[in-house]
Amino acid sequence: MSKILISGGNGFLGSYLCEKALSNNFEVTVVDNLSTSKERQVPKEVKFVKKPIEKFSTNERFDFVVHLAARPSPEDYIKNPLATIDSNDIGTRNMLEIARKSNGVFMYTSTSEVYGDPKILPIPETYFGYVNPNGIRSCYDESKRFSEALIKAYERQYGLDVRIQRPFNVYGPRIREDGFYGRVIPRFIDQALRNEPLTVHGDGKQTRSFLYQSDWVAATWKLLMNGKAKGEVLNIGNYKEISVLELAKLIIKKTGSKSKIVHLPPREEDPKRRAADITQARKILNWEPKVSLDEGLESTINWLKEKKNL
Ligand code: UDP
């Protein structure tokens, strides 16, 4: 039986990855401090260690080590800059050491934020980014960039099998839905279902490309299992862009809401556009997104309605 260690495995994406690993007969261990999730949401077969990854140590060996623990919501990480950095410096180093001692495969979920406010769209992996090293978002984007450097150092110095993905705005059921957390899709759906104004930052012309959770799981599993992915750094995202204003209108329509749209001041250093060039993922993993934004929103809206008993 293969063994997998997943940091942040109880979060929105981690919980799906645990299910995927269990369904492939893996023994799954999760280390999670519940910093972004409210309660345990992984099946009972999962071995669960409630700890920040930077405080975790073990002599156990794993075939696969996945470092997913992160605080990806801008509103959250701006409030918790040091904890955000710790999961990407000490946390990444800890997970790399476990992979090295295990002689296992190491996979890291970096982020599309490593590109900062990109000057090329859609963004290929070869673009080095346009990032403010000491700006308000640097605790997240620079620490993710540092993690990538650390991982590549382990590959160069120890020959470790490392794989890095850069996910682009993944969404779907189980994403933290309370307004406090602030990711745009769950927040807009939540506001629309309560018939409250949808809060668009700035003029709403900024764009994102959104990826549904099942497409992320499919890509992640291929990245882990496919030997051709060894050493690769791959965008895992969508190439279709939508503006935040269009997204707000679409969610109002799809929920049949009476909500209006209000404009709030723009977020500081909010990237103006973001869309993934997935040529490499297509080629190496034979993967591309299958779920349209329409279908993905539909199931996310239904999940949230059910959760709220609507
Ligand atoms: N956004 C918004 N209103 C909100 C929350 C987010 O207009 O209540 C915008 C935000 O300014 C950004 C986009 O939605 O341009 C995506 O924000 P999110 O926090 O989901 O993630 P990001 O891609 O910025 O990391």
Could you explain the architecture of this structure?
The protein has one domain: NAD(P)-binding Rossmann-like Domain (Rossmann fold), CATH 3.40.50.720. Helices cover 38% and strands 16% of the residues. The chain contains 10 helices and 13 strands. The strands form 4 sheets. A 7-stranded parallel beta sheet has the order 3-2-1-4-5-6-11, with helices on both faces. A two-stranded parallel sheet has the order 7-10. Helix 1 links the parallel strand 1 (3-7) and strand 2 (27-32). The protein is globular and about 55 Å long. The relative contact order is 0.14. The model has no long low-confidence stretch (mean pLDDT 97). It binds uridine-5'-diphosphate. Uridine-5'-diphosphate (UDP) binds at residues 73-74, 169, 182-184, 187, 199-201, 206, 208, 244, 267, 270.
Quick summary of this structure?
The protein has 310 residues and is α/β, with parallel strands linked by helices. It has one domain: NAD(P)-binding Rossmann-like Domain (Rossmann fold), CATH 3.40.50.
Key phrases:
310 residues, 10 helices, 16% strand, globular, 38% helix, binds uridine-5'-diphosphate, alpha/beta, 13 strands
Radius of gyration: 19 Å
User: How confident overall, as mean pLDDT?
Assistant: 97
Q: Under CATH, the topology is which?
A: Rossmann fold
Spatial separation of the terminal alpha carbons: 42 Å
CATH architecture: 3-Layer(aba) Sandwich
Instruction: Provide the spatial order of strands within the biggest beta sheet.
Output: 3-2-1-4-5-6-11
Low-confidence stretches: none
The secondary-structure class comes to: alpha/beta
How many beta strands in the DSSP annotation?
A: 13
Helix content: 25-40%
Query: What is the name of the CATH superfamily?
Result: NAD(P)-binding Rossmann-like Domain
Task: Give the count of structural domains.
Answer: 1
